[in-house]
């Protein structure tokens, strides 16, 4: 028992050291590349995280660097069939959460239950659903945030200003028109790698 506890403590220590090293390397790379990190003064324990604009595969690099520096352990969802052995452990280790599409309980309700069951939880949801141009935003992230009673983290990757991170944590009012107008106001002037592929900030469903 003592030996098991010692090994667990050693693994935790190694994990912390690796995390600090990764944070330092990521911060140095951002500075070397000329990017500035955006971070609000305070961070809630739970939030639905959205990122805009998403127009290029390059977004992944800067998103991961910013995520490592901020220490945001954001989760994401995928259908539960993808979590079968042997990929299940890897998917969960990367922050994946399996969703059973066959259940009658809706996706929003499943995610709200995940928030309720956890003390700390950040869920990343793509408002556009793709990096291609779309007529607007899907409402999934909005409905999840309202159901879970958590704010929305407005993250961005701005290639014009070379800024990446979280602009703010927005508490939703429940007025969809007013809230999307406020989100559009906050994101105004933010430019993706391919601006022509940035979807307009408006509801499409």
List the helices and strands and how they pair.
Layout: H1 2-32, E1 36-38, E2 46-51, H2 58-70, E3 76-79, H3 88-93, E4 96-99, H4 107-117, E5 121-124, H5 140-148, E6 152-158, E7 163-170, H6 176-187
Parallel strand pairs: 1-7, 2-5, 2-6, 3-4
Antiparallel strand pairs: 6-7
Helix pairs in contact: 1-2, 4-5
Describe the structure.
This protein has 205 residues and is an alpha/beta fold. It has two domains: 1-32; 35-197, no CATH class. It has six helices and seven strands. The protein has helices at residues 2-32, 58-70, 88-93, 107-117, 140-148, 176-187, and strands spanning 36-38, 46-51, 76-79, 96-99, 121-124, 152-158, 163-170. α1 (2-32) crosses α2 and α4 (107-117) packs across α5 (140-148). The model is unreliable at 4-9 (pLDDT under 50).
**What is the H/E string?**
HEEHEHEHEHEEH
Helix proportion range: 40-55%
Distance between the termini: 55 Å
**Low-pLDDT residue spans:** 4-9
Briefly summarize what is shown.
The protein has helices at residues 2-32, 58-70, 88-93, 107-117, 140-148, 176-187; strands spanning 36-38, 46-51, 76-79, 96-99, 121-124, 152-158, 163-170.
Which short descriptors sum up this protein?
single chain, 205 residues, alpha/beta, 2 domains, two-stranded parallel sheet
